Amino acid sequence: MRLLSNLIFIYLFIFFGQPLMAQFGTGSPTNYQPRVMGDAPIRDLSGVWTPTPRRLLPEGTFISGSTFTPNPPNFTDYGQGLYDIARNSNAGDFVLADTNDPVLTRCYPPGVPRVYFHPYPFQILYTHKEMIMLYEFDHTVRRIYTDGRSNLDDPPPLWNGNSIGEWIDDYTFIAETVGIDERTWVDRSGVQHSDQLKVTETWTRVDTLNLTLDILMEDPLVFAEPWVAERLHFTLAPDHWEISEISCSGDYLDFSAFEAVITDQ
Fold this sequence. Notes:
Elements: H1 2-16, E1 47-51, H2 77-85, H3 102-106, E2 122-126, E3 130-135, E4 140-145, E5 162-169, E6 172-178, E7 198-205, E8 210-218, E9 227-228, E10 232-236, H4 248-251, H5 259-264
């Protein structure tokens, strides 16, 4: 029941733009500052971020809960073959019992950049050597190293890949991710990838309350040309908002409908 309540709240927030309400697991904080519109802070993406409500998006913004562009990317023959065998349930072509979506059938992490299609907030924190992203969905933790290291030529496959990042000016942060586990989908529509996928995220702090994300996806085995996503928009949550717990195992899905699928795969 708690999961259902969270889902209903998130969808109401995203699609109807209702005021944010805090979620707490250990009580309510007693000291926090209200949000104030102002100039963007310098080299700072910290805070809890949520998808921007539709009513606040710029006119003409592409909106989708499953993919990055109005049309699929330009595939190679190999990439088209992968796309053709995907049975996604987001467009209504396949019911949940028939899908082969790895998040739904096996509870696999969504990976990067698909994670941004899951309608839950994420939090950004910093240490001396990395930017840490805490996604509410399934306790996902991602580290983007900012200590000047280079990505490996032959990185180990990880659900969120291997990420390095740097500020290119006071308000723009770029992260490059390679070595993303091939078992993930790039989006929720069934676009897949090889071990050659490279994802470049460009984060821009617009002001105190708004953040944009531009994504470039390159995979010479799957994409005939780089796939450029439509811009994503995020809004800073109030200071007293805290990300909650959404777990795929146990309270996110009822696996009874997928037992046959899991057994056969």
